[in-house]
Write a structure and sequence with these properties.
This protein is an all-alpha fold. Helices cover about 65% and strands about 0% of the residues. It has a domain at about 130-155 and about 185-265. It has helices spanning about 1-25, 50-155, 195-200, 210, 215-225, 230-235, 235-245, 250-255.
Length: about 270
């Protein structure tokens, strides 16, 4: 009898301790499942898990999943924006590259056109120089023939009248050499090339102010000496010389200063 009593007391203690241990586990949020079969009436599996805790855990899982989805969406959006920005930068670089290439092509075409125009001008200037040289030679030859003819006529008869000649007058202030400051570049006057410049120097004309004071008779004298009739008056040497003597410029003198006039360049 005493042994049975001890067994019953031990079983009771075991169940009491197990109950409290199960309650302690439920309080800490841990799932406790009884090893006993499910009650067919109550369908209780011995679970002590709190439904509110399960609901909170589910909410936290759903919130974490939603946050992960939001982060993934933002990352995808940032990636798309980055790709669009990179594409825009590449498009701008391509446009700038094309614009630079078009500008270089236009500058090259303009330079080639300017070079061709300059070459044509030099060719024309050279042709003009040659024509001037031929004209000068012809004028000198004609002058020599006329002089010889007049001399012959004067010997034939002293009663013949003198041939009509244009009124000429030697300019005042002819120089044997340029002044201390050096000679002026007479080729800055339109109609005067290197050869005419040298010819003017040879007859005492070195400076703009000498030409600026010429009269009609002085120009006739220059025409005779240079064998280029009408050149001084036709190209208005006097008017150009006045401006240049005052330190001013003409469109032609600017081109000469830039080296754009072939006839003004020394070979």
């Amino acid at each position: 009898m005493t042994a049975v009593l001890y067994v019953l007391i031990a079983v009771l203690v075991f169940f009491i301790v197990g109950y409290f241990l199960a309650r302690i586990g439920c309080t800490s949020g841990e799932r406790y499942v009884s090893e006993t079969p499910v009650d067919p009436v109550t369908e209780d599996s011995g679970s002590c898990e709190d439904p509110e805790i399960l609901a909170n855990q589910k909410k936290r899982r759903e919130a974490a999943e939603a946050e992960a989805q939001r982060i993934r969406a933002e990352a995808a959006k940032e990636e798309t924006a980055k790709k669009e920005a990179d594409a825009k930068i590449r498009a701008e670089e391509e446009a700038a590259k094309r614009e630079a290439e078009e500008k270089r092509a236009a500058e090259k075409a303009a330079a080639e056109k300017a070079a061709a125009a300059k070459e044509d001008e030099e060719v024309q200037a050279e042709a003009g120089e040659k024509a001037e040289a031929v004209e000068a030679a012809a004028q000198k030859e004609t002058k020599a023939k006329d002089s010889a003819s007049l001399d012959g006529e004067s010997h034939k008869s002293s009663s013949l009248s003198e041939p009509e000649t244009a009124e000429v007058s030697v300019p005042e202030g002819l120089l044997d050499a340029p002044r201390d400051g050096g000679k002026d570049n007479l080729t800055r006057i339109k109609g005067i090339g290197i050869k005419i410049d040298e010819a003017l120097n040879s007859i005492g004309i070195w400076h703009f102010d000498q030409i600026a004071v010429w009269t009609e008779e002085n120009m006739a004298w220059a025409d005779k000496e240079l064998a280029f009739p009408g050149r001084a008056k036709r190209d208005d040497w006097v008017g150009q010389a006045k401006l240049l003597a005052e330190g001013k410029e003409t469109e032609f003198s600017k081109r000469v200063d830039k080296g754009e006039v072939a006839s003004s360049k020394k070979v």
